[in-house]
């Protein structure tokens, strides 16, 4: 029994280290690309041309409407709620009114919240946090009804886990909730075994629309 637990722990640590190395590699690559892009832009300006690079998923018009997620949650035998319906991924400038709190997907801001084990002490803009979920992050949220001990223990876990973030959310129904793209569950506290199960399955899990996208270089409080 002990051996199995040790193997699981070792596997988990190896996976986290692998994600850290991948994140560092992406950061180096992005810095190189940023420098190269800057050179191209400067050259273009000198020649009298201005080029604007947009993400394929960005809105091409300010008039584009922000779509609300359509569908509903279905609760599985394991207690995880899965959103059954369409979760659009368009980057928008208009405010999105999500059908769930915290939201688990839908149109969102073009800038994500940093989610490399980031713990925030103030409530987040849902539109930025949803972008983090699109990158494969797990979002831990809590209300003032959660115990200080649970909040501290969960914060320590998040800080040690790439592709996670944590923040208060007084609008949610339960004291502690975990969210990933298209999935969500309530847990009783930091020692609830479902916390580890949710992290294991959904941190950069199969549900991730943009697996491997960075969780740094976004917004930070």
TrEMBL record:
Residues 1-11 have a biased composition (Polar residues). It comes from the Bacteria. The keyword Transmembrane applies. Keywords: Membrane, Transmembrane, Transmembrane helix. The chain crosses the membrane at residues 32-53. InterPro entries: DUF3105. Residues 1-27 are annotated as: Disordered. Coiled coil: none annotated. Residues 14-27 have a biased composition (Basic and acidic residues). It holds the Pfam family DUF3105. This is DUF3105 domain-containing protein. It comes from Streptomyces dysideae. The lineage of its organism: Bacteria, Bacillati, Actinomycetota, Actinomycetes, Kitasatosporales.
